[in-house]
TrEMBL record:
InterPro entries per the UniProt record, alphabetical: MutT-like (IPR047127), MutY_C (IPR029119), Nudix_hydrolase (IPR020476), NUDIX_hydrolase-like_dom_sf (IPR015797), NUDIX_hydrolase_dom (IPR000086)
One GO molecular-function entry: 8-oxo-dGDP phosphatase activity
Protein name stated in the entry: 8-oxo-dGTP diphosphatase
Species of provenance: Pontibacter qinzhouensis
Gene Ontology biological process terms in this record: DNA repair; DNA replication
Catalytic function, reaction form: 8-oxo-dGTP + H2O = 8-oxo-dGMP + diphosphate + H(+); 8-oxo-GTP + H2O = 8-oxo-GMP + diphosphate + H(+)
Family: Belongs to the Nudix hydrolase family.
Length: 136
């Protein structure tokens, strides 16, 4: 569904022990070296939560549980319209192995604004901080 030119990307705000997982895109990816919430593109006819579970398993070797959908963000990325769909997620199992990212960090919420984010992630970050009452 949706606009034929839009790309749907799901991303995980993965919480564990009061920290949030942030990942850095590698040099060869689009938006090189920027930080993001890990995730990826929906496949045709795939449910959002299933896509997120699949992507996090593929990219990080982690099992997660999506728990709350936040507000999708539309962002013009080159000639494409990106629709970034965030979910707060909980850690279930596994140890991180970086398959395609350059780096990862478990960040305290109060430090999340310090990263050099993909621009589409900034409204996601602000909604998340507001929800968790650390926006000031
Ligand atoms: N996974 C993820 N992608 C994001 C975020 N923010 C954001 O702008 N994006 C963009 O959404 C698209 C998601 O693509 P992707 O992670 O599947 O990987 P990619 O573009 O490297 O894959 P491709 O080579 O198959 O096109 C990328 O253009 C990426 O830059 C985010 O928080 N998480």
């Amino acid at each position: 569904m949706g606009d034929v030119h839009s790309i749907k990307v799901v991303c995980a705000i993965l919480e564990q022990h009061n920290r949030v997982l942030v990942t850095q895109r590698n040099q060869n990816m689009a938006q090189p070296l920027l930080w993001e919430f890990p995730g990826g593109k929906l496949e045709p006819d795939e449910e959002e939560e299933q896509a997120l579970i699949r992507e996090i398993k593929e990219e990080l070797q982690l099992d997660i549980l999506p728990v709350k959908r936040l507000t999708p963000v539309s962002y013009a990325l080159g000639d494409k319209l990106l629709e970034l769909i965030p979910y707060i997620c909980h850690y279930k199992a596994g140890a991180i192995q970086l398959v395609e990212h350059k780096a990862y960090q478990w960040a305290e919420r109060s430090r999340l604004r310090n990263y050099n984010w993909c621009p589409a992630d900034l409204p996601v970050l602000e909604e998340y901080l507001q929800l968790t009452q650390l926006s000031l």
